[in-house]
Hints:
Layout: H1 4-14, H2 22-28, E1 33-37, E2 40-43, E3 48-50, H3 54-57, H4 66-78, H5 91-103, E4 108-114, H6 117-134, E5 142-146, H7 155-160, H8 164-167, E6 177-180, H9 185-188, H10 194-212, E7 217-222, H11 238-249, E8 252-256, H12 270-274, E9 280-283, E10 295-300, H13 301-310, H14 324-339, H15 342-359, E11 367-373, E12 376-381, H16 396-407, E13 413-415, E14 418-421, H17 429-452
Parallel strand pairs: 5-6, 5-7, 7-8, 8-9
Antiparallel strand pairs: 1-2, 2-3, 4-10, 9-10, 11-12, 12-14, 13-14
The structure holds pyridoxal-5'-phosphate.
Residues 57, 116-118, 121, 150-152, 223, 227-228, 256, 258-259, 284, 295 line the site of pyridoxal-5'-phosphate (PLP).
Amino acid sequence: MRTTREWQALDAAHYLHPFTDTSALAARGTRVITRAEGIYLYDSEGNRILDGMSGLWCVALGYGRRELAEVAYRQMQELPYYNSFFQCANPPAIELAARLAELSPPHFKHVFFTGSGSESNDTFVRLARRYWALRGESERTVIISRWNGYHGSTMAGASLGGMKAMHAQGGLPIPDIVHIGQPYWFECGGDLDPSEFGLRVARELEAKILEIGPQRVAAFIGEPVQGAGGVIIPPKTYWPEVQRIVDKYGILFASDEVICGFGRTGRWFGCEHFGTRPDFMTLAKAITSGYQPLGALMVSDRVAEVFIETGGEFAHGYTYSGHPVAAAVALANLDILHRERVIERVREDLAPYWAARWRELAAHPLVGEARALGLFGALELVPAKPSRQFFKERGTVGSRGRDLAIRNGLVMRAVWDTLIVAPPLVITRTEIEELISKAALTLDQLYAGLAQDGWLPR
Ligand SMILES: *Cc1c(COP(=O)(O)O)cnc(C)c1O
């Protein structure tokens, strides 16, 4: 086996990482993760790290599930691959389509398979526009999305997303994708209370529809809880008002469930937690607990009927749409979620416990707000409470906190100066205590360091 140094040298010489400053990483050296078990990662130096981010929001069942490995092994021997293009399908993909229809809210009976969340969102863009074209309203092409939403990294995914740094690279967004404000009270709420703010920001959707002309708007897309944007949990008033508006204008509504789907909020899907009725759900990540790459687009009856009856050929698809191994692993993952009552346990037991413990971190002098929902957590780091003013040079303090956390054996992610976590759904109460105490230790160390370096007001 190579040493860490050797791996880092090869990595620096050849490996272009996603969302990474290559030369900065080369100077610092990559962390090489060599194995994992339960909710713990092990790196090439032998450090044991609690994975507070479930990989990248996906490893719902934790690591080391033999059953998933065995299902993949058997499927690879039986049928490792065949496409779904030429009037063909395979048993795991068919079974998974039926299972997803059964799990989803009742108005979803059809699914289009993809290889990732980004591809699911690309498929949504094409399908939504095609739906309106088939209905004779081909001028309905505009899709409304939100600033600081995240919908993936392909050209359409990054366009739907509201990350300005992504738009700045590669000439995005693509035409007819526009953005409105996000329900991020801590940053954008000003003097409004959260519920007034939730209504006000939801009504930006209506204002945008009227500005563009309702006859030109195809769809709206949003994440129930914005994940990559900083675990932004909208005020209670937000989603009901959005639903009222999409209903009023009859536009299609996509719930990007790539993170919220499969139990993160304590329900199977985030839209069920918030009580919305989307026309599409985009899925990926925890659909296989990350053991195989797989995405899917759930298509509601309203859309599927037009599509199927008047459609003709939909000129879209991926080599790995309906991949038998990924589908077999997804089915086994869903079986385990059911058998072990993972999602019920999150909803009834872990989520209330988690929320109570996590919110106690708000007492720390650095924490302006501690948000929790399901098994999501976020901490807003600020120089002086109770003001909701961020640090100057936004992002520095967050990265410093994240680095300390990893040194303390906990993966947290920094989104500017918001520290976020989304641990595996199989975490135990004892492991939650370990996560919380590592987070608290990190806050204390960060506070001491910032005080020493003159970052805090006296
Ligand atoms: C991760 C993510 C995506 C993109 O999924 P990929 O599998 O990385 O393409 C899309 N939407 C949301 C909400 C995500 O968190």
